[in-house]
Design brief:
15 helices; mainly alpha
């Protein structure tokens, strides 16, 4: 007997029995394990990199900004993943990306210099930025518009749990293992997941064949614009929020780790709620909350002299960033099924156009006044909030 699936409650369609019946259990397992590796790897890099750059590589804000811009170059070129799919299936391409991410991460600690950090960052980032659009494309292809917000949020929640484990590991082992050991340990673990995925048989499910070419469509213009603004805002958080805590408020690697553990603990419980909230209230409402909160956070970054308030804003900033899943689910609701792979690849490239420029420009402006990058963030928040009000989705999505 088939279980009754209430379309108003997508979690009913995501039980193990229902997933096995529709042939989607294997693809969800693959996405969960691969995303755990990807998020844990990039979490370790983000936790360690600022202290590593300052203490071991002795880099200033301008040099760190340049390295961060290099990190975003593969994201800018992620649209080329479409051509990789002419040779490999999406699952195998995703696994290969995880393997490259692990190799780059493991090598980072062995090259404590500007050019060494630039090279290992480029390798690590290529793996991470090619995996992300493939991950999103596979999710949007295999799960319908009711299920996708819940699946995306669940995957993020499990990723947050893995990040907590990484944070605890770094907190207790950083002094004993040093930067070289920590980068090598986490990188090796990530690479092993990539090898597991390459050895795994691709899952066979009934999805629409994807168009394997690059193109922009006028009807998706709002998705492209929100994706571009999101990429700009993300860089200010990733590069300058953490650097502010380390440089101005003297946060140690243990303190930064504690903040990331707190963030991920909150996100573990919050992310499933975000998925359900999107189904109940819609993308426009959730994204409006994110961008309004972002304006407040960046203003506080610019003016606070309290390390406690700055750390609190960092947690709030990280929390709000999870709402951006609404940009992807908005695209799923307005796009043709065959446009998922190309749309995610093009969106990821657009997301990183400003990301290549913002870290370098922000690093230069930081040298003039550290508040300027955060004022730019406030402006991005205002523009994002305004355009979010134009979001319109079908009155009732197909379950």
């Amino acid at each position: 007997m088939k279980a009754h699936l209430d379309p108003a409650r997508p979690e009913h369609a995501l039980t193990r029995t229902a997933l096995r019946a529709t042939g989607r259990h294997d693809i969800l397992l693959f996405l969960l394990v691969s995303t755990i590796a990807s998020t844990a790897g990039i979490q370790a890099w983000q936790t360690l990199i600022n202290n590593f750059a300052v203490e071991s590589a002795h880099l200033g804000a301008d040099a760190i900004g340049f390295v961060q811009s290099i990190r975003e170059v593969p994201g800018f070129l992620s649209m080329l993943v479409i051509y990789v799919l002419l040779i490999l299936s999406e699952q195998r391409a995703a696994s290969l990306s995880i393997l490259v991410l692990g190799i780059g991460l493991a090598a980072t600690g062995y090259f404590p210099s500007f050019w060494g950090l630039t090279a290992t960052t480029l390798i690590m980032s290529t793996g991470f930025h090619y995996y992300e659009p493939l991950n999103q494309s596979l999710t949007l292809q295999h799960f319908n518009t009711f299920e996708a917000p819940v699946v995306l949020s669940r995957i993020r929640a499990v990723g947050a749990l893995a990040n907590i484990a990484v944070g605890i590991l770094i907190y207790f082992m950083a002094d004993a293992m040093g930067y070289k050991g920590m980068f090598a340990l986490v990188g090796a673990a990530v690479a092993m997941v990539g090898l597991w995925g390459l050895c795994k048989k691709p899952c066979e499910t009934n999805v629409a064949p994807q168009k394997k070419k690059m193109y922009l469509r006028r009807k998706y213009w709002l998705y492209y614009l929100l994706t571009f603004l999101e990429g700009s805002r993300r860089q200010i958080f990733i590069v300058f929020a953490v650097y502010l805590l380390v440089k101005k408020f003297d946060y140690s690697i243990q303190s930064i780790t504690i903040l990331f553990v707190i963030n991920n603990a909150i996100n573990y419980f919050l992310n499933p709620m975000i998925g359900r909230a999107i189904n109940r209230f819609g993308e426009r409402q959730l994204l409006s909350i994110e961008y309004a909160g972002m304006i407040v956070v960046f203003l506080v970054y610019a003016y606070t002299d309290s390390h406690i308030i700055a750390g609190t804003m960092f947690v709030l900033d990280y929390l709000l960033f999870n709402f951006n899943v609404g940009v992807r689910t908005y695209y799923q609701k307005i796009a043709a099924p065959e446009d998922m792979a190309s749309g995610m690849a093009m969106g990821f490239t657009i997301n990183h156009i400003a990301a290549v420029v913002v870290p370098v420009l922000g690093g230069i402006l930081w040298m003039v006044d550290y508040k300027i990058p955060f004022f730019i963030g406030v402006g991005l928040g205002i523009v994002s909030l305004a355009f979010t009000q134009l979001i319109r989705t079908p009155a009732k999505a197909q379950a």
